[in-house]
Amino acid sequence: SEGRVEVYYNGDWGTVCDDGWTDLGAQVVCRQLGFSGPASLASEGDYAAGQGFILLDDVACVGTELSLLDCLHSNWGQHDCSHAEDVGIRCSPESNTVMDGSLGPPVRLVDGESTKEGRVEVFLNGQWGSVCDDGWTDRDAAVVCRQLGFR
């Protein structure tokens, strides 16, 4: 329920720079991981510095996003940081509803007028792809909404 934030991009895991981060960004990441309680930023140096790529910088979340990648951010790999600035967060473990992966691949909604609507995409083999609507029903939509944390 806590630690250094890393993202997977182009086949590699990398860290996220803490420039511009607030508790709102922490809330988005915790919600994306399945935690529904309060979230907070860790102090710089609370967790070991990452190694390898620094993939994101200047992340700015408003707090309602379903995914960290829905927040404004710099271009992939573009940063002015060192690993001493890797962002760390703490999610509230009491409300932990982390899914063990049995629900399948990660899902997101894109290109909607709000974070609660849009085209359904799934993350497989390191990339996001659209889901075909052949045979799609309201029941399928309800499953996706539940998986995204909407009750």
Automatic annotation (TrEMBL):
It is found in: Membrane. One of its GO terms (cellular component) is membrane. Coiled coil: none annotated. It is a single-pass membrane protein. Keywords: Disulfide bond, Glycoprotein, Membrane, Repeat, Signal, Transmembrane, Transmembrane helix. Residues 1-92, 107-151 form the SRCR domain. Disulfide bonds join C17-C81, C30-C91, C61-C71. SMART domains: SR (SM00202). This is NETR protein. It comes from Baryphthengus martii.
